[in-house]
Amino acid sequence: MQEKEIKDLLRKYLSGNCTEEERALLESSYLQHEAHDLPELSDLQFSEIEHSFIKIPKKTDYRIWGTWAAAAAVLLMVSFGVYFYQSYNSGYSFKTQLIGKDIAAGKNKAFLTLSDGSKVELSNNQTGIIIANDNMMYTDSTVINTQAAISSATTPQSKENYKQFSLTTPRGGQYQIKLPDGTKVWLNSASSISYSTVLINKLVHRKVTLDGEAYFEVKKDAKQPFIVVSNDQEVEVLGTHFNINAYADEENVKTTLLEGSLRVKASAPNSVILIPNQQSISSDHSNTLEVKNVNPSTVLSWKNGEFSFENETLESIMKQVSRWYDVEIAYENEGLKKELFGGSISRFSEVSKVLKMLELTGHIHFIINEKERRITVMK
Amino acid sequence: MNLYKNLNDQELAVLLKKGNEAAFHEIYERYKGILHMHAYKKLVDFEEAKDLVQELFGALWDKRDDLPETVNFSGYLYNSVRNRVFNIYAHKKVAAGYITSFQEFNREASYITDERVRENELAKQIEAEITALPERMREVFLLSRKEHLSHKEIAERLDISEFTVKNHIKKALKTLRFRLGLFAYLLFLIKYYFLK
Questions:
Q1: A278 domain-assigned
Q2: Of B58, B103, B111, the CB nearest to A1
Q3: pLDDT 10s digits, A344-356
Q4: Are A310 and A211 in a shared domain?
Q5: B122 shares contact with chain A (CB less than 8 Å)
Q6: In which region does residue A326 sit, left (phi positive, over 0), alpha (psi from -120 to 50) or beta (all else)?
Q7: Touching check for B102 and chain A: CB below 8 Å?
Q8: Is residue A184 part of a domain?
Q9: Of A283, A299, A315, which marks where a domain is finished?
């Protein structure tokens, strides 16, 4: 082939008119082509590449502003009319982008650790377990298969095992448990509770340690007070319904009372008694204990299978999304974290639906990266 | 924390489509080295290669709205650089020896028919240029791949390839000889040939 033919072929390639065969030939020859006697680059040249920078062309020119202002204003009004008319008719168009597939919601997932150290993975098809003094089962009375223990103990299962145990949910998991005293606990994702009975001042206490978030319906028993320890806070109750949010990556421990009464003791010599629909917020570093009135249905939405936000910061919302969908969150700029959002949606929707709801209420968009399990928040 | 350093190419591409300047700069930092080195090898002209990369990125920014929604963003960049090199071959008097090279190649009449194989080969060839780059630029690229490969690992990896890459180890070593000096080069040779 002559030089001219080759150059013509290249032009044909560049205009996209090559046959498949010609394309294969050119691209293969490109791969194979190596320049002979290529001079090595000098350190100066390497440094030039290293310090090179790309400039972004700026186009905006305001000089004609004055002349055209009036015309622009008229045009703007007309355009807005058209725009609103169109958006009214076509609905909102979402800009959230998926890289790969959508991300499914969390599910019932947890494992139980017994006092002999054995770990049992609980069924995903069950919602909760019941632990009595001498046996344990799923809420529908199915036997828990302890043979399927992740790590089994050397000694056989004994009744002693049920006196002290812990239940842990991973990110993207939730589970329910009924404790030996009849108390019901709903455990949110990335959380853990351990239960035991202890003697304090010759009185038997029911004691639960909590990391993460849980909702309690404590069985009334005046002779055996119920204590929940989380971070530096302790809650003492007789028989009440309350929710505690004590994630290690949150700044505060939030205790919300729904029924009865309870006393919150924080690390400082602070102590407060809550009445229903009140929430105490104890802060580790400022040693304060604040109390405010809240809407209980928002606080309990997670337990009722919903995400419900009222003027909540995006950072706080995305932390919940992160735990339930087991994703990491990246922000285009840190300022977005403090913006306030609201809305509610089923917790069992795919993540894109939750994010689209947020998109509706403010000017933000998301990139959902399924493979790396990451959500990027942007303006 | 610099968010952009942690994002992968596809995520940066989505941000770029939206007109995010920081994402654009991050893509440039990631790719400028290997694209420049590649263009230099195909054009044998440092300044021309520099202009090519600058123009490629200028066009990338101007046409960001029309970026394909591709999952293979690096492949898109690699094809763009090849098209620009082809464009220079097609219009230049002395096309860096390509014409002769093509004629020789054409006589053998064996080429890669599978488009995906060609794409992979191109990616390998371009990414192999990291061996020639100064440490810091190499890091930026490798970090974006979340892989920290030693020279040996890179060489081994390239060894797997079936086409054109045979010479790459030789060339990488040659580059190393120039950049490290004779003593370090001998050490590397010993390490590579006797300890693998």
A1: yes
A2: B103
A3: 889 999 999 999 8
A4: no
A5: yes
A6: left
A7: yes
A8: yes
A9: A299
- Cβ-nearest to A13 among B8, B86, B164: B86
From A25, A41, A99, residue closest to B111, measured CB to CB: A25
CATH number, position A257? 2.60.120.1440
Residue A52 carries which DSSP code?
A: -
- Whether residue A87 is contained in a domain is answered as no
- Shared domain for A261 and A180, answered yes or no, is yes
Does B15 contact A29 at a Cβ distance shorter than 8 Å?
no
Interface of B with A in 124-183 (CB under 8 A): 125, 132-134, 136-137, 163-164, 167, 175, 178
* Residue A339 and residue A231 share a domain: no
Give the domain ranges of chain B. Answer: 3-148
In chain A, which residue's Cα lies nearest the Cα of B19? Answer: A56
Residues A315 and A295 in one domain: no
Task: Decide which of A175 and A158 is more confident.
Answer: A175
Residue with tokens 């400028």: B32
Provide the CA A354 distance to its chain's centre, in angstroms: 11
Q: Nearest C-alpha of chain B: how many angstroms from A12? A: 10
CA distance B157 to B128: 10
Q: In degrees to the nearest 10, what's the CA dihedral of B191, B193, B194, B196?
A: 80
A226 and A180 together in one domain: yes
Q: Are A173 and A110 in contact (CB under 8 A)?
A: yes
Out of A299, A333, A349, a domain closes at: A299
**Same domain, residue pair A145 and A246:** yes
Same domain, A171 and A267: yes
Are both A329 and A345 inside the same structural domain? yes
Nearest-CA distance A217 → chain B (Å): 42
Set of chain B residues whose Cβ sits within 8 Å of the Cβ of A11? 90
Give me the pLDDT at residue B191, please. Answer: 47
- Nearest to residue A226, comparing CAs of A182, A259, A187, A279? A182
For residue A258, give both structure tokens: 């729904």
More confident residue, A141 or A157: A141
Q: Does A240 touch chain B (CB under 8 A)?
A: no
The per-residue pLDDT for range A106-152, each reduced to its tens digit, is 999 999 998 888 889 999 999 999 998 778 899 888 888 776 555 55
CA distance A341 to chain B (A): 23
Please state, in angstroms and rounded to a whole number, the distance separating the CA atoms of residues B126 and B34: 6
Contacts of B74 (CB under 8 A, 6+ apart): B9, B31, B123
Q: Is A30 close to B42, i.e. CB distance below 8 A?
A: yes
- The encoded tokens of residue A376 equal 């990027």
